[in-house]
Design a protein that fits this description.
Structural class: mainly alpha
CATH architecture of the largest domain: Orthogonal Bundle
Helix content: 55-70%
Number of domains: 2
Number of helices: 7
Oligomer: single chain
CATH superfamily of the largest domain: Cytochrome c-like domain
Number of strands: 0
Order of helices and strands: HHHHHHH
Strand content: under 5%
Bound molecules: heme C
Radius of gyration: 35 Å
CATH class of the largest domain: Mainly Alpha
Shape: rod-shaped
Largest sheet: none
Length: 168
């Protein structure tokens, strides 16, 4: 073996050893990073605050209204939270503006539109007691008390107001 060949072999040998050590270190670092990341992720994902934050973030998209279909679950979910906190309005008109108009203003979900004589005529024909009853206890997609906890008198005043609009 010439001198040059011997030093080449020596270089190759030490180079392979260094390369091997580097690869082992790299694999070790990778494994360490993975296990550390997993522990942290697991901790975070199971924290109640994290979970509820995720729930809150996706809540607005968790429901979908389907056009042309009655979506009572959706109306109950959207009408209920805002309503009970609201103070009891003093007049039928105020009650209508505050809550009933959210569905009856535009005639959403098959709600008879306020002021629409054709929509209200057959309902008015049932008589006020039936309308009161349906408004207070709910009727098909109409939520009980429009999703509020207002007393009968307030609900009845709101019904009277809507009936008066349909008679103008
Ligand atoms: C979440 C939407 C929604 C809200 C809020 C709402 N309504 Fe309705 N209401 C409806 C729907 C839908 C109908 C039609 C039900 C049917 O006949 O299928 C209806 C029907 C009615 C009727 C007619 C019932 C009948 O016998 O024909 C009355 C009266 C009425 N609502 C009163 C009220 C009053 C008063 C309020 C406010 C306190 C109110 N509604 C709030 C959706 C709503």
């Amino acid at each position: 073996m010439s001198n040059a060949e011997a030093s080449d072999t020596h270089f190759l040998n030490s180079f392979s050893v260094v390369l091997g050590i580097l690869i082992i270190v790299a694999i070790g670092l990778f494994a360490l990073a993975r296990s550390l990341g997993q522990v942290q992720l697991k901790d975070q994902m199971t924290q109640a605050t994290y979970l509820s934050a995720v729930q809150n973030n996706i809540a607005p998209f968790g429901q979908e209204a389907v056009a042309g279909q009655v979506n009572p679950a959706l109306t109950a979910a959207t009408a209920a939270p805002s309503a009970p906190a609201a103070a009891v309005p003093k007049t039928g008109e105020a009650a209508f503006q505050q809550v009933c108009s959210s569905c009856h203003g535009l005639g959403l979900n098959g709600a008879p539109k306020a002021g629409d004589k054709a929509a209200w005529a057959p309902r008015i024909a049932q008589g006020l007691p039936v309308l009161y009853q349906h408004a207070e206890h709910g009727y098909k997609a109409m939520p009980p008390r429009g999703g509020t906890n207002w007393p009968d008198a307030t609900i009845q005043a709101a019904v009277n107001y809507m009936v008066s609009l349909a008679k103008k």
